[in-house]
Fold this protein.
Amino acid sequence: MGQEMPLEMPLKMTGVSKWFGNFQAVCDLDFDVPRGSIVGFLGPNGAGKSTSLRMALGVLSPDRGEVSLLGQRPNLESLKRVGFLPEERGLYKKMSARQIITYFARLKGMTSRDAKARADELLDMMGLGEFARSRVTKLSKGMAQKVQILSALAHRPEFLILDEPFSGLDPVNQQALEDLIVEEHKRGATIIFSTHVMEHAERLCEKIVMMARGRKVFEGTLDDAFTALGRAVHIGVSEGFDLGAAIAPAGFESVLDGDHWRISLKHAQNSQDALRAAIDAGAPITSFTPEEARLRDVFVSLVSDAEAQDLTDTLAADAAEGRDAA
Amino acid sequence: MIRSTYLVARRDYLGYVSAWGFWLGLLFTPIILAIFILAPTFAQNTQPTRYYTIIEQGSTFTDAMRAEMANTQARMARVILDPVAFSEGEESETLIAFDAALDGGASVADAFEAAGGNPATLPRADFVEVEPPVRTGAELAPYLLGETLIETADGPQPLFAALLVNEDTQEIEYWSENLQARALITAARQAEQDLQLDRALAAVNISRDVLTEARAARRDVKQQRVRTGEDANEGTEVTQADQAPFVVSIMMAFSLWFLIFSVINYLLMGTIEERSNKIFDSLLTSVKLPHLLAGKLIAVLLLALTLMAFWGLGSTLLTWFMRESIPEDVASFLGTMITAAANPALFIPAIISFVLGYLMYGSMFLALGSLCDTIQEAQTLMTPLFVTLMAPLAMLAFAVADAESALIEIMAWVPFFTPFLLILRMPTEPPLWEVLAQLGMMALTTYIILQLATRVYRAGAVHGAGVNEVMAFFGKLIPGKKSAA
């Protein structure tokens, strides 16, 4: 590594790539997780999220690039300060909820007494107190998942890495987990979690990283994401008025979309600018609706672009290969 | 390392011992062994008495047959009266008293009691002769088929077999519907052999007693050995103490094999459970892989030691409570065995062999388990391992006949067999360099296997590699076989 990582970046991945045989799962990944932040790690299935998180933890070694976890290469010492919830859920079926949480907390360095006390505290907090001594096989799937999450944070880690934590939970438990993540964040923990459910990221994250086909397609704040998607405003005018032509000189691009015009907002423009331009152009305005951007739209747009680019690259490579063969 | 290894070992060990299957095995193994040992006696005692008859014009063969059956029962009585003296072909006060009673005309049962035997321990005769119900073979059919019963002291019973001396051909025919039971026909053949011997002797005017006297007068071939150093004054005759190390080494080798075979499955099943429960990632972010494997191996080693301690303690307690009823010569035999087992020249290599053998086979099973989601998958790869484990068992048979056989000497150099065969060789006092070299090779092989097992385990646990990937990997190693990729 050479240089010491600044402590404000608990996780930093630089130019990280990973191959499985001929398949490149992760390609030149760069991103960091600022201290004290909640970062959403988004991407469709097979995007390389879990592989990236496993490399972040040192479970997998990158074939290229560098990973810095809490200022050093991932090792057992740094991992003791990290809590990890893997994507593939699993618990020892013959152990009780309390035994499992205690076991993992002790492996992370807690004393037996502290680990047991912490397990009791967490189980009570999550409403599982009465099941503390029940074998995992007696718990529902949701309860077992909660136990696994509690195992990940029992030792009060300063950095939490959660791989698809909401997967398999019902809405009530999803909300409970959101609350828990907020609590951990308030405690001072830095958190990164991967998810398919954009609403969780919208509600919880200060920063998001999006991946598609092994590549990072976006890294930034939520505002940055909406900007990247491109905002718009819908303005209705009396029939026959050509709003597009009227505001084009002011630098607005617009298209007629049913009974209203959809005006795309460029980086420096906002919805008020579009409204002012329409008024200035003497448009008989009947309605004005700023388009509400959702992270889902950003996600779909970026992933579609990445997949389209990937398809283009593949076709180009195939064509080149065909030429070489000829 | 120590802390995480301890925690893994502790969790696994407590997991194993809290399973009812472990206690079932712990308690039932001695019971099953006891059943195996006692089964022949039990079977003999529970087998219903079988009735046979002899159809003969005179009584020459009939007398020979009766004498043979009486001899068989007398042999059984001798075994029960003094098993050690009987097995070593020696006389003892008990056997002399028994023979004297027989010579005095007593029945086997009376002679047995006269020699101090408990009549309840003498198995009753398996075969009882009855008067022939008919005089010709043709009339025997309904009796042999069980359609007509014969009268016996126990009431009407089916006829098991009939021996028919054919007066025309002079052949002896054995009739029975049971084609598997060989005891009676074997006795008949022996009786006929004795009868013909008697006739041949009579033809040259020699009494059978001459043979008996000749046998009695035969000189024993005493086994001797050269003793040097401190043992030089103990005489040259081979004693029980001389034989004990060989017996103990065979017992130790078998125990080692049995223990490894008994507990190795726990490693396999434990790892398969972790893989199918998808718990590896959580573990590998909490503990280093070598520490994890060490913890797992230690847990099952402790399990093996628990079994040994439990069975050892149980045997000791049983012996202690039964000390009054253990015959003196049996107690002396046990004492000799314990002394032999306590010899450092035997138990130190035995302990090293046990630890290294366990690590070698244990790591193989651990790696195998990490590749499999189910026991069915594991079975594909288990067969070669079990065959490897069975081979030393077959070697024990050679060791019983000759511990210095060239086969054992050569096979002991194969590291997979060394843990078992080195113990068998120790009583033959092999050169020290050979012992050290074999231990060294075994340690090196164990180290290499541990390294390979760690890599396979990582492939299975981290990359999700399965049996097919391993098969494909080994397939690539076969010359001329190309991989599908």
In short: The first helix of chain B runs from residue 2 to 17.
